Input
Amino acid sequence: MESGRNGDSAVINMPESKAKTNGKGKAPVTFTATTKATPQPRGGSKKGIAILDFILRLFATAAAIGATATMGTADQQLPFFTQFFQFEAQYDDFEVFVFFLVTNGIVSAYLILSLPFSIVCIIRPYAAGLRLLLIILDTVIMAVTIASAAAAASVVYLAHSGNPNANWLAICQQFGDFCQATSAAVVASFITSALLMFLIVLSAFALRRN
Amino acid sequence: MESGRNGDSAVINMPESKAKTNGKGKAPVTFTATTKATPQPRGGSKKGIAILDFILRLFATAAAIGATATMGTADQQLPFFTQFFQFEAQYDDFEVFVFFLVTNGIVSAYLILSLPFSIVCIIRPYAAGLRLLLIILDTVIMAVTIASAAAAASVVYLAHSGNPNANWLAICQQFGDFCQATSAAVVASFITSALLMFLIVLSAFALRRN
Output
């Protein structure tokens, strides 16, 4: 905006001196044409960033909802059971998966609520305050998403391969489908955090051009 | 910077008209006084943000080094042993703690290397490109830090309380000192990520005032 404004004032000064030197009627026409043409590409690139922001936000929302749904429905019953006990694995057998489900629910809700603000950024590309609000909230939400995804990933890893030193056995031999579902949810959550990280960098670029 | 430049040109125009109206010798003195005083508060607030950035970065470096050192020296031998086996817990018994150590080492190295750049931001508060580079790298490093901290935290939680559904027993009854050391390292790492998150928000504010 700074250099755009400098360019503007230079353009405004130039036709004035031109009008003084030749005094023709065509000078105002070229004057309006240049002032309209000069800020257009900058506003356009800002609008492009805002549209890319909206599209990436849509993908992130889809990934977050997918992660929440996959984890919430991760449930496997084994086909054999004793008189007193049926072998079943569900997401709420592990506290960290419950944490994962709650945080991904919050992240999905935030992303859906942030979509209208992203649309406002497309309509008004110079609203720096709104973009600053989005970058701060995106940073917090990205931290929450990646923390829950990493915490769940480390338990999924233990479920897959166990830990002989702590005598924790792998449970994925018995509960293969459950392990697949939770792994898929973790991957979807990591995709969400990667998209959010990209959104933060994009917003920083948009703020810089202000 | 945009409004600062506007203010500058306004200040420059004003004393010229003053000098024309009264034509005294004192006019240039007040002219230099105002041009020096007007941009100072804006440059000052930017410099203040840069100094705060440097101080927070110092604290984050200390926390990251502390986390790395605490995890690297987490080692406990039990006072009893059999003929073939001595009971010992070390950080490399758990893959996630090795991952934690490596990432926290990288984060410490990055934070130490970023300190000179932070000093450059204090000296030249209007270097927006450098600040943009710092915000992008800080975002990536913050994501890495919080991911490794969360992954380690979920294993520390399992070590503390176990998981009866997966038949994973808590090992902290036996290895109390080891658990304390790893918990402290995880807390230090979470403090690092919180400081990095604050640094990102601070950089976004500094970019906005550009």
Summary: The radius of gyration of chain B is 27 Å. The longest helix of chain B spans residues 128-161. Strands of chain B lie at 75-81, 86-90.
